[in-house]
Amino acid sequence: MPFKLLSDIAGYMGTAAAILGFQVKKRESLLACQIAANLLVSLSFLLLGQVAGGSICFIATGHTIMNYVLAKRGKSPALWQSGIFLALYVAASVYAWVTAETFLFPVDVFPLLCAVLFFFAVTITDGRTVRLCFLANAVLWILYDLLGATVAVANLVTHILVCASNVIAIVRYDLIGKDRS
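and the corresponding structure tokens:
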């Protein structure tokens, strides 16, 4: 069970990074936290053998790094740059489905849906829309964590806490009116 323990450790570290990310004001800070969170959650899924979730989170790490670098330069990604990552999300999902010993429909489709929501969340600059995309993303990950072949406990805790942190951010920035976009 050393992989399970390592998976849990990576998942909980990802939790801390993700929660912090939703409570910061600057978009670049959110993206930096998302880089760490995605990399750690990817590792957690891969250690459990959940290739669909792990590969999506790994690609999301690269996607977020690109957006972070561009945001630091005051630029947005070109359509073709974002399109490459969208294509990678789809390709990784299809590959995971084709090579999986078991394909749990619709559970193994959730990572792709999460990737599409994540794609919009890190590409769009409107804070409210970003938070809503991340909230829907977290809910779908919770379903994947619960219904997957192996219940990813650390990732489930991560996604529940991320969902709660996102709701707090929505209340703070959108309902109370202190937008951080």
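(Above: one complete record from the training split.) The two ends are 43 Å apart (CA to CA).
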